[in-house]
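pasting for the record
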Amino acid sequence: MKLTLTTLNLQGFEHWDERSPKILKYLKEVDADVILFQEAVFLPSVSPHNQAQLLNQDLNYPYQVSTISRLQSSPEHQIYREGLALISKYHIRSSDTLILKKAEGDQHNRILQLVDIWIGDHIVRIGHVHFSITDVVDYATPQLEETLSILKARHEKRILIGDFNLSHLEDTSDLWKDEYIASTHTPYITYPSWHEGPKRTDYALIPKEYSFDSITVSEDGLSDHRALTVAITLPDGQSTPQSHE
């Protein structure tokens, strides 16, 4: 059983009229089964819909879920509301959103978006993330650790995908290497605009029962990030495996 997922940090509505045609072109070309968006923004002064909803008016994926849960300050907008969004070709069985712990000094509340989809008779579980930046203080690693602990407590293993805000996810492998495989084995860049030089911050972690078929990124220009697309193989006749913890 095959599944293709694309993840993209949308960079809010910045230069949206210029970027949205490029985003649509790429997404139509890769034709992923599930598309995950970070920095999905609700700005009524710009649009009554977030960018994922606007894109899906053209893409026409039958299932979508948005969690716009975070208020943050903005130099341009009085109220800036942001979160995560997902669109899917497959039926969304359920979705849940959990707020992660906020470390002292972190300006952002981060969430874990949990989405279960039906593929045939089987459930595939996805965990969608956008962790905090690690420019000075590493807020992202504790958020990853908490995410994994939540899944273990629920006896779940999920496809974890999104903007991890970690330049070297492999450095955290002690947290996940026993049960997950990372997209890190393929060299790629997803944050070319970083002022200290291009790096990657967007990844997929998949249960060891799965395998990567391909890992590719978009060209520049979709946002300040490149989109990451992963094609994976799931064992036939198997839902997302449970954790053994």
